[in-house]
């Protein structure tokens, strides 16, 4: 599903509650400011199914994502990846099963953001104002703008707040859209092919940026991607969806930051591609 990289307001629950942060031995120690931010939330799906008319898109989905974990969902076009992500964030309603985030019903109490493929920045608003749209509307305008400036600094665009979106490159617009999603320090970030429209070098740069802000903010990340190498570069686990079911759940036990082209990464990528391509002997 190719939609736009923009945090949709209906996907966001405003209230926040404390939740234990995971221990990642490869991550740098948290600063006091980072420690004060909301931690990632656990995601639980049990027996989830989704149908459109007579067509079953997803059936009997069971999935656990630990607080602060980065999970990538891969599979062929039409396998149900994006539907699964939309169910998780409440943009679709399951026909069966239970979805809980942070131990609560899906729509209750957890700050989340949905990041899509295209930026969809408002052309009549300058960059800082676009980012401030992602902040809690209950805050004063000056506070929303302060948080927006911090988010722009996180994505390396602190000097572009006064620019119009039209003068930015494609990669810079994606950074602005990511800053808008990050400005509220979400506990869950769902990403649906967010880098699919970028050129190869910009895509690699953005992968590094995503990993950095994930490690700094500690949110739980669920990424849908067609790019298996991207999944290996970013994820703690890779989940394969085939025919509307989860058929493989592969842990990526590689140190961070990860070396592209390493034998260990290539082996994981090869196993998943073999399964996707239906090659003999693939488990």
From TrEMBL:
EC number: 3.6.3.-
PROSITE patterns hit by this protein: ABC_TRANSPORTER_1, ABC_TRANSPORTER_2
Annotated stretches, region: Disordered: 16-36
Domain ABC transporter: 43-268
UniProt cross-references to SMART domains, sorted A to Z: AAA
Top EC category: hydrolase
One GO molecular-function entry: ATP binding
Record's keyword terms, sorted: ATP-binding, Cell membrane, Hydrolase, Membrane, Nucleotide-binding, Translocase, Transport
Superkingdom, taxonomy of origin: Bacteria
Transmembrane segments: none
Compositional bias segments (type: Low complexity): 27-36
Family assignment from sequence similarity: Belongs to the ABC transporter superfamily.
PANTHER family: ALIPHATIC SULFONATES IMPORT ATP-BINDING PROTEIN SSUB, TAURINE IMPORT ATP-BINDING PROTEIN-RELATED
Name under which the protein is recorded: Sulfonate transport system ATP-binding protein
Higher taxonomy: Bacteria, Pseudomonadati, Pseudomonadota, Alphaproteobacteria, Hyphomicrobiales
């Amino acid at each position: 599903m190719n939609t736009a990289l923009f945090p949709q307001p209906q996907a966001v629950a405003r209230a926040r509650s404390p939740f234990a942060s995971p221990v990642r031995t490869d991550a740098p120690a948290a600063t006091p400011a980072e420690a004060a931010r909301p931690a990632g939330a656990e995601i639980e799906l049990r027996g989830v199914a989704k149908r459109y008319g007579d067509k079953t898109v997803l059936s009997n989905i069971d999935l656990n994502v630990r607080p602060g974990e980065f999970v990538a969902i891969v599979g062929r076009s039409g396998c149900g990846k994006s539907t699964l992500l939309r169910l998780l964030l409440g943009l679709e309603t399951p026909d069966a099963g239970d979805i809980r985030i942070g131990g609560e019903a899906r729509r209750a109490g957890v700050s989340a953001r949905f990041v899509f493929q295209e930026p969809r920045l408002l052309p009549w608003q300058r960059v800082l104002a676009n980012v401030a749209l992602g902040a809690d509307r209950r805050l004063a305008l000056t506070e929303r703008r302060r948080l927006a400036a911090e988010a722009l600094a996180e994505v390396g665009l602190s000097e572009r707040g006064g620019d119009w979106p039209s003068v930015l490159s494609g990669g810079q617009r994606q950074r602005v859209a990511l800053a808008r999603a990050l400005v509220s320090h979400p506990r869950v970030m769902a990403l649906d092919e967010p880098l699919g429209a970028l050129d190869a070098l910009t895509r690699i740069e953005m992968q590094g940026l995503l990993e950095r802000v994930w490690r700094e903010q500690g949110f739980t990340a669920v990424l849908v991607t067609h790019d298996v190498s991207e999944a290996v570069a970013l994820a703690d686990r890779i989940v394969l969806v085939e025919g509307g079911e989860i058929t493989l759940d592969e842990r990526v036990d590689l140190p961070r930051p990860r070396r592209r082209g390493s034998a260990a990464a290539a082996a994981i990528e090869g196993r998943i591609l073999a399964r996707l391509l239906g090659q003999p002997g693939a488990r």
